[in-house]
Automatic annotation (TrEMBL):
Modified residues (N6-(pyridoxal phosphate)lysine): K198
Name under which the protein is recorded: L-methionine gamma-lyase
Cofactor(s) for this UniProt protein: pyridoxal 5'-phosphate
Gene for this chain: metB
GO BP terms in the entry: cysteine biosynthetic process via cystathionine; transsulfuration
Upper lineage: Bacteria, Pseudomonadati, Pseudomonadota, Gammaproteobacteria, Alteromonadales
């Protein structure tokens, strides 16, 4: 699908699908069970766990947006991650990146500890890691790009080439960019996973997930497991998530325009030692981002100069950013990964993933960016009023800061 008709698909899929009354918006089907048309003659649906209209409309729209063949809607993003592990037997090896989402890391390591799969943790941003796949002979390679929270990029095409050469499948967690800004299947990825809780729903009021398979066969196998283990999503959640999906592209346009400006602001702040945003030319993988992404996204992380106390003081002084986990909603959220999203990781693994006491992650919302920057500025001033420099105070938005979008 061309980038230019993504909004059309997101807005129109399922419109006028109601055969009974011609409702423009797909109606909500809450019924858990469906009457048979005749003896031994099922209609489209028989039981709510196995199939539901609202889930199907959402799954079809996401499948089309990702360029796959079959999608499955799950109750949460973690249910989507877990669903993919059903493809593995106890003697199959899963390769994961060392800096994947903390919840995924916890799930994979817990399954491995119980002997349900074998696990190898690698830094998949490094080409030498890919050379190890031949020796490891994995069944599945997991990638998450950009990674959470450091926004490191993995070269999707390079991983797919190396993994497919040894007969492994590749699954990509595409939560951070959504189908509006990255389509891993176009680079040969076999399975795309989303926490739809984030950008796809976009309003911080539904927890959900999706798995999209590149082939019908793989999609059918995953759909069979989703019904079998009972992790399919609720109809009302699917209804709301489809409503969120309608505005995905316009929301992301604003998210990333704001994120780019905030990243530029942070980069020149004397209170910041390092900014992580793929849209900055200083990002080591800026060129890779331009190659495999359709935009740079709405997530920005940075290290504040100081220590844990500095982070705490800064974070609790802000007014326009809610101190909260999660991401991808219209409102700006800020979090301290070491004590929040990544607290479940073992300390050593967390440090190796670059998640220290001074790391701060922002899910940039779609508010007026001047208000967000002014709030960050007063937050920095709170750390040490005497050091609020003229530089930080003089940052002004200019037309040169406008980013090219789509
Ligand atoms: C990248 C990523 N994948 C998966 C998940 C899990 O999703 P959920 O919280 O919807 O279960 C999250 C949650 O933050 C995430 O950030």
């Amino acid at each position: 699908m061309s980038q230019s008709n993504k909004s059309t698909v997101a807005v129109r899929h399922g419109i006028e699908a109601d055969k009974a009354h011609g409702a423009v918006v797909p109606p909500l089907y809450l019924s858990t069970t469906y009457s048979f048309a005749d003896f031994d003659t099922k209609r489209d649906y028989d039981y709510g766990r196995s199939g539901n209209f609202n889930r199907d409309v959402l799954a079809e729209a996401l499948t089309e947006l990702e360029g796959g063949k079959r999608g499955i809607i799950t109750a949460t993003g973690m249910a989507a991650v877990h669903l993919v592990t059903q493809l593995l037997n106890h003697d199959d090896t899963l390769v994961i990146p060392h800096d994947c989402y903390g919840g995924s890391y916890r799930l994979f390591t817990s399954l491995a500890k119980r002997g349900l799969l074998k696990l190898v943790v690698l830094d998949l941003t490094q080409p030498q890691s890919l050379a190890k796949l031949e020796e490891i002979q994995p069944k599945l390679v997991w990638i998450e790009t950009p990674s959470n929270p450091i926004l490191r990029l993995t070269d999707i095409e390079a991983v797919v080439t190396a993994a497919h050469a040894v007969g492994a499948l590749v699954a990509a967690d595409n939560t951070f960019l959504s189908p509006a800004l990255q389509n891993p299947i176009a680079f040969g990825v076999d399975i795309v996973v989303h926490s739809t809780t984030k950008y796809i729903n976009g309003h911080s009021d539904v927890v959900g997930g999706a798995v999209i398979a590149r082939t019908q066969e793989l999609g059918d196998e995953l759909a069979w497991w989703a019904n079998n283990i009972g992790i399919t999503g609720a109809p009302f959640d699917s209804y709301l998530t489809l409503r969120g999906l309608r505005t995905l592209k316009v929301r992301l346009r604003q998210h990333q325009e704001n994120a780019q400006l905030i990243a530029q602001y942070l980069e020149q702040s004397p209170y910041v030692s390092q900014v992580y945003y793929p849209g900055l030319e200083s990002h080591p993988q800026h060129e890779l981002a331009k190659k495999q992404q359709l935009g740079f996204g709405g997530m920005v992380s940075f290290d504040i100069k100081g220590n844990l106390q500095t982070s705490a003081k800064f974070l609790t002084s802000l007014k326009q950013f809610s101190l909260a986990e999660s991401l991808g909603g219209v409102e700006s959220l800020i979090c301290h990964p070491a004590t929040m999203t990544h607290a479940g990781m073992e300390p050593q693994a967390r440090l190796e993933a670059g998640v220290g006491d001074t790391l701060i992650r922002i899910s940039v919302g779609i508010e007026d960016v001047q208000d967000l920057i002014a709030d960050l500025e007063s937050g920095f001033a709170c750390i040490d009023e005497n050091q609020a420099t003229d530089d930080a105070k003089s940052f002004k938005l200019t037309p040169a800061h406008t980013v090219a979008l789509w």
